[in-house]
Amino acid sequence: MSTARSIYVEWAWHVIESYILRNEYPGISGNLPEELTQRRAACFVTLHKANGDLRGCIGTILPTKRNLAEEIRDNAIAAATKDPRFPPVQPEELNNLVISVDILSEPEECKPEDLDPKKYGVIVEAGWRRGVLLPDLPGIVTVQEQLRIALLKAGISPNEPYKIFRFSATRYY
């Protein structure tokens, strides 16, 4: 296990357990590694059940906080309690969760031929509507499928004009 992996995922675990078990919102202390307190990056925190089913996923496509510790903290709490597709995580579920943290590169505008669903995540955008899909998701092997799902999530018709952006992500378990 790499140090970075343990830093990101261990922090996400600490945050979720503190929030769910003790109703505590962890502050950013001087005890955290510089990788968390000195770096800014967008990230997604994803929760899966032990059987692989999605349980929550919330993230940012651009950094919105002062540092990665805050970004992971707020996205971890939101993934556990505010994903509109799921009820909030209950304490008895914690032992059956698997957490991953994706650290994103800055998005760049592109064309469909620049996409590769294994390598790049995608953002589609039309006005205020935006759909995001992380890279390397099970079952998504074609650019067409990746775009179809992202457009559906955004409520954008494939027949209307929209912008496409790609980003890379490093996933930590």
UniProtKB/TrEMBL annotation:
Ranges where the AMMECR1 domain occurs: 3-173
* InterPro entries to which the protein is assigned, alphabetical: AMMECR1, AMMECR1_dom_sf, AMMECR1_domain, AMMECR1_N, AmmeMemoSam_A
Q: What is this protein called?
A: AMMECR1 domain protein
